[in-house]
Amino acid sequence: MKALDELTFDNRFARLGDAFSTHVLPEPIDAPRLVVASPAAMALLDLDPAVAQSPVFAELFGGHKLWAEAEPRAMVYSGHQFGSYNPQLGDGRGLLLGEVYNQAGEHWDLHLKGAGQTPYSRMGDGRAVLRSSIREFLASEALHALGIPSSRALCVIGSDTPVWREKQERAAMVLRLAPSHVRFGHFEYFYYTQRPEQQKALGEHVLAMHFPECLEQPEPYLAMFREIVERNAELIAKWQAYGFCHGVMNTDNMSILGITFDFGPFAFLDDFDAHFICNHSDDQGRYSFSNQVPIGQWNLSALAQALTPFISVEALRETLGLYLPLYQAHYLDLMRRRLGFITGEEGDQALVEQLLQLMQNSGVDYSLFFRRLGDEPAETAVARLRDDFVDLQGFDAWAQRYCARVALEHDGDEPQRRTRMHAVNPLYILRNYLAQKAIDAAERGDYAEVRRLHQVLSNPFEQQPGMDSYAERPPEWGKHLEISCSS
Fold first, then answer.
1. What is the pTM of this model?
2. Is 388 noted as a catalytic residue in this protein?
3. 114: left (phi > 0), else alpha (psi -120 to 50), else beta?
4. Other CB atoms within 10 A of residue 269 CB
5. To bridge 159 with a disulfide, which of 29, 130, 427, 472 should be the other Cys (CB 3.0-4.6 Å)?
6. Contact criterion met (CB below 8 Å) for 55 and 157
7. Which position among 91, 252, 273, 282 bears the catalytic label?
């Protein structure tokens, strides 16, 4: 394991030059202190988890100190926000400190969010607040633990620095890790500003650094776009299967790597509601839970437009046509596994759709239903879950079909079925009310609950002694929290 001063930097994106990013130093926050750190994320940098307790750790990730080899840069990009094109966005409160490569040869961006003003702050103060930093940290690590591709979070550093949002709060910084922070909006920026040389340089950089296998294909850019389509189809299938709502699927929040990126007013479903809107600012419901699938395709179309200098329109359209079939295949595969099926049968999709409609009409807890379905033999489980449904006749009809479908597997080994289902159906998820309780305590200076919640969510599929309260249905107040974009 390494100490903090032993990291090896290789700042590949910074070498693209000033057309792609601007050199900016972090603005320190007052009295930096560790709120929470992720040992699993630290391991990606080969860091000894014990270094998180050292004063220099908080100073580095609170903007007070900097590695000599780091080259902090604010990236420039544009994007479509709620369907409208914004010609210049960029890192308004974040800095790419540099790229570190580990002993396995992997490169990881160190991106510090809340680092102060940049040329792209657009009248903002460049700060992040404690509550949003905690939410992003918990979500990044929780999604990863669920097997959903995501940027990672190394730590949250709190401070005494006051910032104003709807009220006075305290500033914080979160250190994010990803193999790349290039977004759809990077390509859009150089396309719409008509800078073909820079756009080509960006494309060649992304191909060489992140899609080297595509360089072996006859049309590397087309091969790269196909890979991006495939990754996003699988990503959004996992969001839908696990009830995750991103909340702000603007193209500047979409990673070219197909990972969950830029957390704002996200939420996991409590009661199943296909039309759930997790973003208090989303008046029209553009980014509702059910809209995430078509919005994923819309965003890929926006990226396709920016790639027309490299790929024919016909080839782009043909590749975009792969998105929905790929999404549907990944989603149905996941839902089959969540229901405990080993094989695929023709009626499985209808069985899933019928279940979700019954859950929608009855306000059934989405995550706990699947978990409890695997706790006992199918007939016993559906009998126990029956009381959660309003339409008993409809549920009985579904339960009969489900039990017959389970019997088709000819498995007979109930402990094995339980193990299979519990391996894909989490007992613990990041419910908004759990995050809010941890945030409330942290804002009083007590970080124990943030750390405990992070630890629970790091192992979501295994029952943990003494942690039953984290697996309960939320109280009514916990189902109606309003989360905004305000960071």
1. 0.96
2. no
3. left
4. 22
5. 29
6. no
7. 252
